[in-house]
From TrEMBL, chains A, B:
Taxonomic lineage: Bacteria, Pseudomonadati, Pseudomonadota, Betaproteobacteria, Burkholderiales
Pfam families given in the database record: PDH_C, PDH_N
PROSITE patterns listed in its UniProt record: PDH_ADH (PS51176)
Keywords, alphabetical: Oxidoreductase
GO MF annotation list: NAD+ binding; prephenate dehydrogenase (NAD+) activity; prephenate dehydrogenase (NADP+) activity
InterPro entries reported for this sequence: 6-PGluconate_DH-like_C_sf, NAD(P)-bd_dom_sf, PDH_C, PDH_N, Preph/Arog_dehydrog, Prephen_DH
Protein name per its UniProtKB record: Prephenate dehydrogenase
Enzyme Commission code(s) on record: 1.3.1.12
Amino acid sequence: MLNKVVIFGVGLIGGSFARALKHAGAVNTVVGMGRSPASMARALELGIIDVVGGDMAEALNGADLVLLAAPVAQTGAILAAIAPHLRPGTIVTDAGSTKSDVVAAARAALKDKVAQFVPGHPIAGRETNGPDAAIIDLYQGKKVVLTPLAENSAADIETVAGAWRACGAILHTLSPQEHDKVFAAVSHLPHLLAFALVDDIANKPHAALLFQYAASGFRDFTRIAGSSPEMWRDISLANQPALLAELDAYMAQLTTLRAHLAASDGAAIEAVYANAQHARQQWSEAIETAETPAPK
Amino acid sequence: MLNKVVIFGVGLIGGSFARALKHAGAVNTVVGMGRSPASMARALELGIIDVVGGDMAEALNGADLVLLAAPVAQTGAILAAIAPHLRPGTIVTDAGSTKSDVVAAARAALKDKVAQFVPGHPIAGRETNGPDAAIIDLYQGKKVVLTPLAENSAADIETVAGAWRACGAILHTLSPQEHDKVFAAVSHLPHLLAFALVDDIANKPHAALLFQYAASGFRDFTRIAGSSPEMWRDISLANQPALLAELDAYMAQLTTLRAHLAASDGAAIEAVYANAQHARQQWSEAIETAETPAPK
């Protein structure tokens, strides 16, 4: 049981963490911290948080766990503001989509207290946001990746892992570098590609005609281009080296496929498409089985 | 009322056309033609067709309308087989995803009877196939694009349009060339990009690790990579010139975006992402409003 949890940012990610912990009876008091008084008031009204925090020292006093769930661009500033008031026994974690940059920011801001910071990334998201988007079961059956530091104690890592398990999540561990390479490939690159396609179409002179005939395939392919431009700008920049490497590999793949198409090489095109279809089918069967909760 | 409709291919597209026409009371007899005796027997058993056609002359005798809904690679061969038995008063249409190549095939096969061929493309599809996938309302509220020939009579075009309207579809008209440019951009290119991404990931040495962390964004982005490799090979080749042009434009877009990322130009990246998000939101609101049937 955690006595006091402080959450920076009480939208979809932070608010759902609070709701799930409360639902599991895993926390006594949740203190919300954030820049928008309206969001804080709404989170309080919805029962997501028990207290709207103001003064940093008071908010952190006696806290067992601090979750950073504000936009990642604020991570460094929040860590710097926390640092002077961070006492032994308080563990800080985050929910950022990139980890190498967060670790660097944490080392810079927390200095000799960095052992108290256990980086994390819940793999759950939607296009909705704000306290009203927060739900009890956002993390149910979903993965949370922790990327612990060499300085972290096993007990502190377990405190963070235990909180996420109480939310129904399945815990995984990667190094920050592994994490960033993996998510560059399976998340950050697809977002960049979807944004690029919609922008490409929107800038054509006959964009209105094109959009008129876009159908369900287009809808699903571009769903992630409905995500927050600011958030994905920050993620793209934060994971720049890994994302550039994945983008280069993909552009090389497109160059090859273009050559097959220009040469009318149906067998080579079909080989690429068939390998993709097969791999996706295997993935879909494995993942959907793993993430579908057992019937009650 | 159509007295006799002949359908080549009684899977999702052809079978749903038959079901919808029957449901609307718009046809007396549906004759199914196809290479798989098992599929034909199943379509008969399900009541999708009334007769399994065998002899081409007999099947076409007295037919008002013929729909080609077999894989597009068979279009030329089917048209050539139809040609000698095609009598005045019978109109032929198709459901292919590309139109310039179909028009060329129709001109080659039907010669002086080409005026009887009205090309079409219903914008409806799923990953399912076969007679069991056929449903009454596949076309309800969906677009059907006709790309008439200069030789078509207004009355023949209206017969095809009327059949699709009886299925609940909304009729649009484009030239074959316009059609192929539009669908290269909003359908064929996204399919190629999704296949390319999954193949790219599947070929990496750490593919298993990557797939393990792929989540809902990846699932939606790559859903169309679950489509038939043969069908999309054929579509890619059939629409080669327009698809190459769209692919080149997209690769130029990626090259620009890569330069922004390499230069850490957050403002330029955000401009692309924000334009895409805005355009997609507008599209989503307009399309989803248009395609959602009014409450009954």
